[in-house]
Amino acid sequence: MKKERLATSRFFLTLGILISLFIMSACRQIDLGEDEGNGQDYDDGCVEVKVRMGNFNISSSPISMSRAEGTEYPEGVTAISIAAFNENNVRVDSVKAIKDINNETFNAPLLRLPPGNYTFVAVAHGASSTDIEAATIESPELVRLHETRIYETFSCVKSDVSVMGSAMTINLAMGKRKNAQFALETLDVVPNEIVSVWIKINAEANTTVPLHPGFNPATGVATGNWLYSRNFSVQQGAVVYKTFGMLLPAADYNMSVSITPVGENKTEYTQLKKIFSDVTFSQNTLVRAVGYLFSTNTSFEFTFDTDWEPENTLPF
pTM score, two decimals? Predict the structure, then answer.
């Protein structure tokens, strides 16, 4: 008799655990591109939370780029990721979308969440192609990108958001870019013997950019101090304009820059090499190197571009 009561008790205990797990799993992460809600509540206790990203600050003045029907992103943003974390720092739901692949989700991202208090993390960034996965939000303190090249990167963290028992919309102010950018602009054309230009930034760093570079979405500060190195092909008889982005180990950081013309068989034209030390890079700032590169007795200067932040020129 005791054995029967014990077996019955174990059965109901197991059944209770299974029911609890089923209820908890009812609000798990939706698939990429899934967007079946229409501002409704759900029988499983979850509610629909629409997310709108706006206030992308792409110049010295804030510019709101949100629309009533969705989100309009700055040029260069092709991927988004959004995640909601509960009070125990557990990710309850998340969504990723790629422009031209998951347009419905890209323009009107949607999460399903049970009522509670949440921290929302959002990332909007560029990528080299639509084959590159959108950023992975591991926690409110860590986001990882999925390629070594850094493009336009915006992110924000909004804490203490209460999700009640009915559908709602969360507005996220994305603010300024978290990345810095470098541009090389030559005033002379590429001679016949030159096939590429090798640019190295922060040569003092011991490590190159990892396969999955990480940064803090609230501050934009990178998880490491990295060397950025790119060897750009150039067109003979034409001027050069090349750009690439960086994540910095601080909001403002001084780094060296070297620019080396390269010929056939990877021959470096060291007599034309330009080296600059302690150049200040900042988040949301484009450092533009402008000058005559392919002559030994010409000048060069750095311009802090007005398209991103107020102008400041550093002559060399």
Answer: 0.80
Residues 6+ apart with CB under 8 A from 80: 53, 73, 96, 97, 106, 109, 122, 123, 124, 125, 134
Residue whose tokens read 């009107």: 108
* 107/117 Cα distance (integer angstroms): 25
> Using an 8 Å Cβ cutoff, are 76 and 153 in contact?
no
The region that residue 217 occupies, defined by phi over 0 for left and psi between -120 and 50 for alpha, beta otherwise, is alpha
Question: What are the distances in angstroms from CA 273 to CA 101, 180, 248, 261?
Answer: 43, 23, 25, 7
pLDDT mean values, one per 10 residues, the chain (316 residues) = 47 45 41 35 72 73 37 87 96 96 90 95 96 97 97 95 90 92 92 97 94 97 97 97 95 95 95 91 90 78 53 38
Measured CA to CA, the distance from residue 178 to residue 285 in angstroms comes to 9
